[in-house]
Amino acid sequence: MRKFYEQLLENNKKWVETSLAKDPNYFADLAKGQQPPLLWIGCSDSRVPANEIVGAKPGEVFVHRNIANMVVHSDMNMLSVLDYAVNVLKIKHIIVCGHYGCGGVKAAMGHQSVGIIDNWLRHIKDEYRLHDKYLNSIENEEERFNAFVEINAKEQVYNLAKTSIVQNAWKNGQDLMVHGWVYGLNSGFVTDLNVTISSNEELDSVYQLDL
């Protein structure tokens, strides 16, 4: 265990050396500030690295990750990240990226208790209830799982658009688009779910806020 920890420190040194060899001002430039055009809301799964998936460099992607890439309206962590990204960094795109094979989504489809995370998974179970007729019509279990991963990502796009943070940005004329993706662990490719929202007019009227 100690050896693994020491290797991490050694890897950091090598990374710094390699980065400086390519650009002597690499870290000095990064320290000047950040102006990322993109907020990435993804899953905490270690196999889904935001920057690498889109070929971005440090400073180009503002990142928030949690179990199953959820946007929960009472989650102050997510809301704080969202507020800073939209109102301070003035990002122009938000991508919610789920991934096939997501353990959180899989657990939400079952009945086994997995501890305190049950309370988090309840939000995903609510989504299943809203789409149960369609999902239960899919006989193949793997196909049903994949379909629910896609539905979950789409629902989070709409959850973002329902927030006062995003709607206020639109009211003020800020260019901001929210997109839904799913990443394939076994291919490396992302699938654009073709759910992009750039105005609260695309929401049901009950969610449109007068700000």
From TrEMBL:
PROSITE patterns: PROK_CO2_ANHYDRASE_1
Any GO BP annotation: carbon utilization
Signal peptide start-end: none
Reactions catalysed according to its record: hydrogencarbonate + H(+) = CO2 + H2O
GO MF annotation, one: zinc ion binding
Names of required cofactors: Zn(2+)
Gene3D superfamilies, sorted: Carbonic anhydrase
EC number, UniProt record: 4.2.1.1
Residues annotated for Zn(2+) binding in this entry: C43, D45, H99, C102
Taxonomic superkingdom: Bacteria
A Pfam family it matches: Pro_CA
Cofactor binding notes: Binds 1 zinc ion per subunit.
InterPro entries: Carbonic_anhydrase, Carbonic_anhydrase_CS, Carbonic_anhydrase_sf
Presence of keyword Zinc: yes
Protein keywords: Lyase, Metal-binding, Zinc
SUPFAM superfamilies: beta-carbonic anhydrase, cab
Family in the record: Belongs to the beta-class carbonic anhydrase family.
Protein name: Carbonic anhydrase 2
Organism, scientific name: Flavobacterium anhuiense
